[in-house]
Amino acid sequence: MAYSARKDSPELPDFSLLKRLVRDQLIYLLEQLPGKKDLFIEADLMSPLDRIANVSTLKQHDVDKLYKVEHKAIVSTSDQLCFLIRPRIQTVKWICDVVNADKAVGKLRRYKIIFTPQKFYACEAVLEEQGIFGDVTTDEWAFYLLPLDEDIVSMELPEFFRDNFLAGDQRWVSTAGSALHLLHTLYGPFTKVYGIGRCSKMAYESWRELLEDSEQKPRQAEIGNVFLIDRDVDFVTPLCSQVVYEGLVDDIFRIKCGCVEFSPDVTSSDKSVKVMLNSQDKVFNEIRNEHFSNVFGFLSQKARNLQTAYDKRRGMDIKQMKAFVSDELKGLKQEHRLLSLHIGASESIMKKKTKQDFQELLKTEHSLLEGFDIRECISYIEEHINRQVSMIEGLRLLCLLSITENGLLPKDYRSLKAQYLQSYGVEHLLTFHNLKQLGLLVEQQPGETLTAMESKVGKLVNDKTAGKLTDAFSSLAKKSNFRALSRKLNLVPKSDEEYDLRVPRDMAYIFSGAYIPLSCKLIEQVLERNGWTGLEEVARLLNGHEFAVTGNSGADSKTKNDAQRIILVMFLGGCTFSEISALRFLGKEKGCKFIVVTTAITNSSRLMESLLGNTL
Amino acid sequence: MMKKSEEDEYWNSSKFRAFTFDDEDDEFSRLKESRQAIRRLAEEDEDEDEVEKVSWSGEPIGSISWSVKETEASNQRTDREPAFPRITTDTPTLSKSQSGSSLSSLSSLFKGKTRGNFQNISETPSVRLFAPELRKSRTDTKDSDGEFSPEETVRRMQHGKAVSLEKFRSLQDKLLLLDSAVLGHHGNVITAVLIHLKRTLSKDVLFAELRSRQTALRHFVQYLTETRDQDLLLELLRSLNRTEDVALLQYREQLSLSDAPRRRDFLKTCLSLPFSADDLAHIQDQHDLLDRQILIEDSDAAVEREGKLDVFRKFPRKASILNMPVITTLYYCCLYHYSEQGTFSSPSSVRQTFKLSEKQYFVTALAARAKLKAWTDVDALFSSRNWLGFTRKRAPISFQRVVDILHRNSAPSQVLQDYIGLVDDPQQRVSLASRHRCHDVVINTYRDMKDRQLLLGYRAKVERGSAAERKIDELLSQPQIRWKN
């Protein structure tokens, strides 16, 4: 098990360069406002900032006090204020209030706004409207990419998903293009770019325009291939419960910027502990991609080994003991600490999951994926809602039902919606509206029952029905066609076969052998075929927007080098840890390596929460 | 790793008050390096005048330009083959036209593009897009020196250059500008143009043009949402006949009303909004429920203060019932007002008024009564008489789930075993019973299955000398049982 890559596996590029570059640029920007200044930081920028700089870095560049942006009156006495923010209108309005309040009392200060990753005209328009354009200087900090691990780079833009897919606002398209451009410049030139999805296509175009305006110095490519994929190509995968260790930890404890906070019940002490979860953590690195059922066995084996290592002390003489203490003990202690943390986390996960009757939940999800016993699934979901088990989970199951069944029967939709509103509040009318707009939770349109029947007899959906929803201009919703896709791509392995989770045979292991993630399967297929040839029908069922292009600037594209086996996958709208695990598995199988670039790490809860409409 | 956690603590502590640092600069030399590196980058940003020069082609890799600088596209595009191809299927080629070219050539491009191709990417009925073109008279298209065509303006904006939009005064020019922005896929620029249009066009004209430009429309809706320009947004949606959006947007206002009576009154006004019949019924329910909650809250708060009723003392109310969902309200009523009949707070009245199903009522009442350990009430929930007058325990959900609910409310195993015994499937019954240590149920099940081996096996699991062990021994010694093994 664990992480034994094939011997000929290529080396991953070094992404720490990205951190150095943004740190240097931040320092430069801070120096643009010489002298002591107070720095206000947008709340959700704090963790990303923490990963690339620390307090002393800021301190060295004349930052005096640090505040979190809280949208209320400030107490700073400094005569220079610097704001490090996301380009959000409400934050800029708050800054205008701060400046105008100063003006009202005749207080003179210098102000600087640093927008990251870029500024928007709409924000500058606010400055203008509020009469403080010119009173503040503005800058951009091009912090596009934060490496979370050796193979994960995040744009840390969770709002990308809602803005782009729900609101249909393309503000982040060029951001994605710029991020891609940066990667191309540092680690390219890319040889081939594949993609699917409307946003992917636009991001590609945006990057290509940047490319035309710049010139690339010929260099040895480190990344050969790129795959761009929109989150709305595959909603099924992020809606499933995660059962691979890293995903499970994210589902339960929420990993934030590569860091998790384990509560006292995990640490079995009175304090909670923050732990970085990445390949540096030797214990974590070995279990992160494992199905949860294997984790306990692995951890206890590890604990036994540790005991043996400690036991070596017995019967040592002074000299040996001295050597042991200086050479091994520190490592052992470190391992000990990590081991006990992960054992604690696993226990806590077990406790939470048995309380929730996790098995039955998984059974329902698997039935939905297979298209089996749908009535039973509906009654399970109904009961789940009636009992007010979890607002988010109930919604997630409804969406999974809708997306796998290509919409709910009108009577089911009405009844489940009514029961949901009764359990969680009528304000969720707004949530249902959002979900409908996105196509995540919809009623089957009359006439589509034909599709359901057709799919039963194994025929393919005809053009008329497949195109129906995409024709609706006012909605960005797309028809999922999950059943047909699942058949075409063999996403659901036959259930009568035993699946040994210890020796995974395909990517389905990340869902207990029940389902191969659609997103990753697509990537596999396209890479295998070197394009979309033979996948025309699949692409059509996915509502099109697929592409495969070859660049001609890559001078060394003829030479078969390692870069061709490094594939950068960019998820627009977020990706899950389970998908990353699946790609790592695929990489091992094929002797290549995947680098995941995502607008943010997501999971079913984050996805659902971003679509809630019941709060202001 | 632990160093990180210290820093995290720093962030946490800075939430409320600021930290002060001493000013010391010991890593000066390192700083100088990074400053120099960064300055190299910055130069790229600042030399606006030198846009035509591709001066940094030989720059070392480390000095990647961050905001990619503008160069005259026309120069480069003609003498250099693009490194990567356009995706030709449905990407409009608007920006490929020669810089400074007149708009008529632009229009020919538009015309040349087939509608099918175009539609895919912008989802705009293409016919509408041609309109500004067709209306445009040729004399207007002449570019005066130093002025940029719409596409060039959009390009400059995409690269973050300051441009003046003031010269786009005719409707055609404005719309061309907007359409060019949409074709560029840069949401930032689309919104910028829309802000300009909002300032310089009457609402009616702007709304009418947006009607056929879905991408631009979505950006405008998002912009108005973010600037919280509710009035204009409502007007826009009304003019587009998006009645459901209009209704929901107004309905949403309630979220800002924390005062319950005011919220109730507001909900009443929502009943005249153009909702679907189904949704209207939900909102009616929401209104009626809040009305009822206000009455219950008033009276219960008083009762609780007086401290006369036991149940409020033993189970103090954790939160107000105002604005809670109906199921939560029912739970509350089952906790505090279970035996009432005909009052606003009686569970049966809540159930009837809001047409809750048997299942909904059952699971809620079960959880509430179990919470209070009112086992007789729990028991009564299951009673049903058949036509012969026998009582039999029935439930609208599986007994397995019943056990789960009872267990969550920490029912003792004596209570649990009654219900575990009612689980149909012997396998499930046994597994539940052993999980909850209800030995009798396990033993009886094995007895009924006439499975001596399993019984023997279970004997090893129960405590030595316990009643369960004695029972097993007794059974095993009974000669009249015909064991199957």
From TrEMBL, chain A:
GO CC entries: late endosome membrane; lysosomal membrane
Compartments where found: Late endosome membrane; Lysosome membrane
First-listed, main subcellular location of the protein, grouped into a coarse class: membrane
Record membrane topology: Peripheral membrane protein
Sections of the chain in a coiled coil: none
Entry keyword set: Protein transport, Transport
KW Zinc (keyword) present: no
Record InterPro entries: Sec-1-like_dom1, Sec-1-like_dom3a, Sec1-like, Sec1-like_dom2, Sec1-like_sf, VPS33_dom3b
One GO-annotated biological process of the protein: protein transport
Entries under SUPFAM superfamilies matching the protein: Sec1/munc18-like (SM) proteins
Similarity section: Belongs to the STXBP/unc-18/SEC1 family.
Protein name: VPS33B late endosome and lysosome associated
Native source species: Salarias fasciatus (Jewelled blenny)
Automatic annotation (TrEMBL), chain B:
Key word RNA-binding present: no
GO BP annotation list: intracellular protein transport; vacuolar transport
Positions with biased composition (Low complexity): 94-107
Cellular compartments per GO CC: early endosome; late endosome
Domain of life: Eukaryota
Region of interest called Disordered, as start-end residue ranges on this chain: 64-107, 129-156
Biased segments, Basic and acidic residues type: 69-83, 133-145
Key words, A-Z: Cytoplasmic vesicle, Endosome
Location(s), subcellular: Cytoplasmic vesicle; Early endosome; Late endosome
Name of the protein in its database record: Spermatogenesis-defective protein 39 homolog
Taxonomic source organism: Salarias fasciatus (Jewelled blenny)
Gene it is expressed from: vipas39
